Amino acid sequence: MEFLDTLKARHSVRAFDSKPVPEALLQQILQEAALSPSWSNTHPYRLALATGPVLESLRTELYSRFQRTIALQRGGKLKQLTGLLTRDPGIPDGDVKPVVNYPKDLQGRRVECGKGLYGVLGVKRDDLKARDQAMAENFRLFGAPAAVFLFVHEGVGIYSALDAGIYLQSLMLAATNAGLGSCAQGALGLFRSPLDKHFEIPKQYKLLCGVALGYELDVPVNKFQPEKIAARELLLPAKTMR
Ligand SMILES: Cc1cc2nc3c(=O)[nH]c(=O)nc-3n(C[C@H](O)[C@H](O)[C@H](O)COP(=O)(O)O)c2cc1C
Question: Where in this chain does the record put each Nitroreductase domain (predicted)?
Fold first, then answer.
């Protein structure tokens, strides 16, 4: 694909065909994404590629743990406290603290995105159960036959996330170019211990997020196109010199 076509064609896919992706194709896009730049060429991130029985095991465990998370969330303060004390599997054990209170200045775009997504899913804003269910689909990886989990080196702080972000975009573009759909998933940063069961993850590498990969289903949720931001909104106004 031409670069601009690829850039425009990439979009978040939230419903996948179960058809497996050939291992060679997955390795190819991981290698293409490794063309990404990184600070001092260090690539301070590592990847866990899950397919087949490992992915099925993760899907089952992540989904059931998130169902417990919902039960705790909806069960009130006492239930949450008991959950904490009893080490309930619904209590997140991810490395990065999830954002609970979104900054006010970002909230508008976040709400618009959520509204649009729930709109195509036919989920009403006040239907908590349906919203929880839509969120829970993250933990089934939206049915994807492959997933990559990204871990960043804690030793270089926020810069490892910067480099991993560059890799993530390259990976999603390489996937698009190869005819694959993808969805970056911050939600997959919620639980680390299920990944420790299946992969040798050095302690200094912290789980950041996941990305679902596979063949896109032709369904409305995959047609959802949140409005892109205008570059002028990103540009800071210059101060006038006196
Ligand atoms: C780092 C990152 C984390 C994300 N986490 C999630 C997620 O947990 N669940 C989800 O459905 N989408 C997630 N997304 C997808 C965004 O919602 C999506 O990129 C955004 O709405 C723009 O839509 P587009 O990807 O179709 O262009 C994430 C995207 C990024 C870059």
Answer: 7-215
Three-state SS for 67? helix
User: Considering only CA atoms, which of 92, 37, 57, 67 is closest in space to residue 207?
Assistant: 92
* Six-digit token string for 153: 């080196």
Report angle CA 101, 117, 122 to the nearest 5 degrees: 120
Domains of the chain: 3-98+138-225 (3.40.109.10)
Residue 177 Cα to ligand 1 midpoint, Å, equals 19
Q: Determine the pLDDT at residue 188.
A: 98
CA 211 – ligand 1 centroid, Å: 9
184 pocket-lining for ligand 1 (C-beta < 6 Å):
yes
12 within ligand 1 shell (Cβ under 6 A): yes
Q: How far is CA 217 from CA 18, 141, 213, 220, 223, in A?
A: 9, 14, 12, 9, 10
Residue 203 sits at the vertex; the CA angle it makes with 148 and 34, to the nearest 5 degrees, is 35
Ligand 1 centroid, distance to 61 Cα (angstroms): 22
What pLDDT score does 92 carry?
A: 96
From 12, 158, 160, 227, give the residue whose CB has the most ligand 1 atoms within 8 Å, as the site to mutate: 12
- The pLDDT, as a whole number, for residue 98 is 85
Is pLDDT above 80 for 1? Answer: no
Of 103, 96, 97, nearest to 154 by C-alpha is: 96
Nearest to 91 by CA among 72, 63, 64: 72
